[in-house]
What we know:
Strand order of the largest sheet: 1-2
Shape: elongated
CATH class of the largest domain: Mainly Alpha
Helix content: 55-70%
Distance between the termini: 31 Å
Number of domains: 2
Order of helices and strands: HHHHEEHHHHHHHH
Radius of gyration: 22 Å
CATH topology of the largest domain: Four Helix Bundle (Hemerythrin (Met), subunit A)
Number of helices: 12
Strand content: under 5%
Largest sheet: 2 strands, antiparallel
Amino acid sequence: MTxxxxxxxxxxxxxxxxxxxxxxxxxxxxxxxxxxxxxxxPSGTTLPAEPVLCETFSVSRTVVREAVKILQEKGLVQIRQxxxxxxxxxxMWDMLDEHVLGATIAEDDSLAILDxxxxxxxxxxxxxxxxxxxxxxxDTIDRLHALVERMDxxxxxxxxxxxxxxxxxxxxxxxxxxxxxxxxxRALESQVVNTARYxxxxxxxxxxxxxxxxxxxxxxxxxxxxxxxxxxMFTHITEAWLVRRSGPGEPVRLQR
Length: 256
């Protein structure tokens, strides 16, 4: 978004709601999250006063107060007695929150936030692959093998291929038994799995190359080789993203 567009979209611009949402506080919160992330309300500034927000969104003070409370829970604002509601630095934002992450991705032309998401996936899934190689039973190994074989047959159908791709990674995560790491990955991916900026190119050759990476992961898990499985997962996630990635700037955050 250009500076001119930012200027035009000021704090009093009403949202383009075509009909009154069922949950007004949630709708007001989502709109304010987007405005904060876009820089309409920069870090260190105060949100407009309650009466202004009420008029802007055509809602009651109760709705505005609930929305501001939710913003505080997301780490985007701090309520200070006598100072108003202050927008916090980006370092305090809850980046696992669906609204915060979604808005940040939408506004990040550099792809740095998606690079960070991939790095996070890579760290967590590599560790989970290591554990899976030690703990996987024969049923898990058979399932991974079946998914790899099926994906070889689906390289011309990228939509179904990617459904099986996600199932493969989820099978590895479940085999590790790390529910927290799996929950983080699933929360992150739920915000990007259907976005063109994350999915990138989808042609047949890329699916073929991607499944070679899956096969290496499967083979190392089947061989109960923890270090090999971790390295195969690390390489696969890195290479798959670098091939899909299309945007300005070098992916320096992925360098190791």
